[in-house]
Design a protein that fits this description.
alpha+beta; OB fold (Dihydrolipoamide Acetyltransferase, E2P); 2 domains; 5-stranded mixed beta barrel; rod-shaped; membrane; NA-bd_OB-fold; NfeD family protein; transmembrane; transmembrane helix
Length: 148
């Protein structure tokens, strides 16, 4: 292959990896786009196919290994911020009895949630409970004990 054809291939790969990144937002394929850019530069300098391929692989892997973890923290990729953590420690009232090893319902902040308690405890309707944790969309509750 001649140098012009290789440059076109690397340019197409840059566009391809950038488009894939835009659709996936996984901070993975963008590093391959940058690796393709390094190979395109090597191609423009007239370096051989082997050097271009090595430039692509080395740049992509180095960026993937060393910058991806930092980028994931900065951009918080894959982390959806929610306010459910603010519900831990809040109290609500049982609207559907919670039986041992079964789920019931709790009204908390005006919303009805599916809830369960420790394995061997049950909670009656209108009993006040405290949120200990949240598993998915299910509250994990315990009997509310007022502190004096």
């Amino acid at each position: 292959m001649n140098g012009e054809t290789l440059s076109i291939i690397w340019a197409v790969l840059i566009v391809f990896f950038t488009v894939v990144e835009a659709f996936t937002l996984g901070l993975t394929s963008i590093w391959f786009a940058v690796g393709s850019l390094a190979a395109l530069i090597a191609s423009a300098l007239g370096l051989g196919l082997a050097i271009q391929f090595i430039a692509f692989i080395v740049v992509a892997i180095v960026l993937l290994v060393y910058t991806r973890p930092v980028a994931r923290k900065v951009f918080k990729v894959g982390q959806n911020k929610t306010n459910v953590d603010a519900l831990i420690g809040k109290t609500g009232f049982v609207t559907k009895a919670i039986l041992p090893k079964e789920v019931g319902q709790v009204k908390l902040n005006g919303q009805i949630w599916t809830a369960k308690g420790p394995e061997h405890e049950s909670y009656d309707v209108d009993e006040e409970v405290e949120v200990m944790a949240i598993e998915g969309v299910k509250l994990i509750v315990k009997k509310f004990e007022e502190t004096k």
